[in-house]
């Protein structure tokens, strides 16, 4: 593809246009949108009676992972976030491009996952069923996210903050009501799992990590946050704490209302089903409304961040770019590419496979970030070697377990992951050789 003129590549980046709480809103927007609504049932399917513990362990692993990102953001705040971090560790070459694209496609997969979740919940309010309804609603949400993202940062920040406040308050109220109505009885949660295997629990933890990985999107707005060296790290920590507390509260409420089999059966809309025995049809409508708010804000925040990372890779001349006759800046073009790819995935692919593919891509990229800090940047960013080694070890354990479980139950996911990574690597190597 022909390379586009990069002269105006950064014109959409507005320095100091995002506040600390605006960044927190974007981070929680991605996490809560994808995490608790999209993944509760899928984690329960793997971890069974330990699905709440899986979310807790996923939060702990995310905490170890966040350490590297906080250190890097403090040293190298940038609108490109992870792309910039990788380039500092590995240089502006194929290694940086390959791992950054793994993160990019993981986030695109995440957007399609959240869009499908939005469609699953919204369809609960519609009286008729049709196979085309879910893909149509998912594509419609992604189109709406595109139009929001071409507006100003100030509008996106205000919109995200309002949506984050509404969905957080709503989830807390729903979860507290569910726990109170059930008498704090957790029939589907057990300290001694009867059905879950060790591999299933670890695989559930691996999938639950997707519920927290949205904190990385904050780093992709580093060049636009007020006092980035101070506030990017703070925004990451605050977002993780808020989401971990909400995840535990909500999963406990779901576990008190439904059996494991009921949660798994309704895995695409588990929270809506959990509301039925507690609040009746009114509760179903309220839960669906909050799910719509959460998923809409999640897609908007994800598209905001990931399009900026791809624009950074384009400006670093690590990926091919063509404007296809479109006007405007590179960041606007990368936003279009991101939304179109998410639409294709949301329209044609199964939800659980989408989540599995995203988990593998993300954890591989996460290991590369920690290794880059450990091997090349530890002294420059003043990072603790023991925390870095712990983060790598935890990632490797859950990744191996997840791959093993999927290989025995759905090997197509593993083959798709391997083929996807091979195509990304081959494409990057050929592109960079041709460019030289």
Automatic annotation (TrEMBL):
Lipid bilayer topology: Multi-pass membrane protein
Main location: membrane
InterPro entries listed in its UniProt record: AA/rel_permease1, APC_superfamily
Keyword flag Cell membrane: yes
Membrane-spanning parts: 20-44, 50-70, 90-110, 130-152, 164-184, 196-215, 236-260, 284-311, 332-349, 355-373, 385-407, 413-432
Keywords: Cell membrane, Membrane, Transmembrane, Transmembrane helix
Subcellular localization(s) per the UniProt record: Cell membrane
Top-level taxon of the source organism: Bacteria
GO molecular function, one term: transmembrane transporter activity
GO cellular component entries: plasma membrane
UniProt name for this protein: Inner membrane transport protein YbaT
């Amino acid at each position: 593809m022909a390379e586009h003129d990069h002269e105006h590549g950064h014109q959409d980046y507005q320095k100091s246009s995002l506040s600390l709480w605006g960044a927190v809103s974007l981070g929680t927007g991605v996490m809560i949108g994808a995490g608790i609504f999209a993944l509760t049932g899928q984690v329960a399917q793997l971890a069974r009676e330990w699905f709440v513990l899986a979310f807790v362990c996923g939060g702990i692993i995310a905490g170890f992972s966040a350490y590297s990102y906080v250190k890097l953001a403090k040293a190298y705040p940038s609108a490109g976030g992870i792309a910039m971090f990788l380039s500092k560790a590995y240089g502006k070459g194929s290694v940086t491009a390959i791992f950054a694209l793994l993160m990019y496609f993981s986030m695109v997969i995440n957007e399609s996952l959240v869009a499908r979740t939005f469609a699953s919940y919204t369809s609960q309010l519609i009286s008729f069923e049709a196979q085309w309804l879910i893909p149509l609603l998912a594509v419609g949400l992604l189109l709406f996210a595109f139009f929001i993202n071409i507006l100003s940062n100030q509008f996106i920040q205000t919109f995200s903050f309002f949506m984050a406040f509404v969905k957080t308050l709503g989830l807390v109220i729903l979860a507290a009501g569910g726990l109170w109505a059930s008498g704090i009885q957790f029939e589907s949660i057990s300290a001694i799992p009867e059905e879950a295997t060790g591999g299933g629990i670890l695989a559930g933890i691996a999938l639950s990590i997707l519920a927290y990985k949205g904190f990385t999107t904050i780093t992709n707005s580093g060049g636009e946050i007020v006092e980035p060296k101070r506030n990017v790290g703070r925004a990451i920590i605050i977002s993780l704490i808020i989401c971990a507390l909400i995840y535990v509260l909500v999963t406990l409420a779901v576990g008190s209302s439904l059996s494991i089999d009921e949660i798994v059966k309704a895995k695409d809309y588990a929270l809506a089903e959990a509301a039925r025995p507690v609040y009746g049809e009114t509760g179903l409508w309220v839960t669906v409304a909050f799910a719509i708010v959460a998923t809409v804000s999640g897609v908007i925040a994800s598209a905001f961040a990931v399009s900026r990372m791809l624009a950074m890779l384009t400006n670093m001349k690590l990926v091919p770019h063509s404007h296809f006759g479109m006007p405007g800046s590179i960041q606007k073009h990368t936003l279009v590419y991101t939304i179109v790819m998410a639409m294709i995935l949301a329209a044609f692919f199964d939800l659980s496979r989408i989540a599995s593919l995203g988990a593998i891509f993300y954890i591989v990229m996460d290991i590369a970030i920690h290794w880059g800090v450990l091997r090349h940047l530890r002294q420059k960013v003043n990072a603790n070697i023991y925390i870095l080694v712990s983060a790598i070890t935890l990632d490797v354990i859950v990744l191996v377990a997840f791959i093993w479980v999927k290989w025995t139950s759905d090997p197509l996911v593993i083959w798709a992951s391997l083929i996807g990574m091979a195509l990304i690597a081959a494409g990057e190597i050929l592109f960079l050789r041709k460019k030289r």
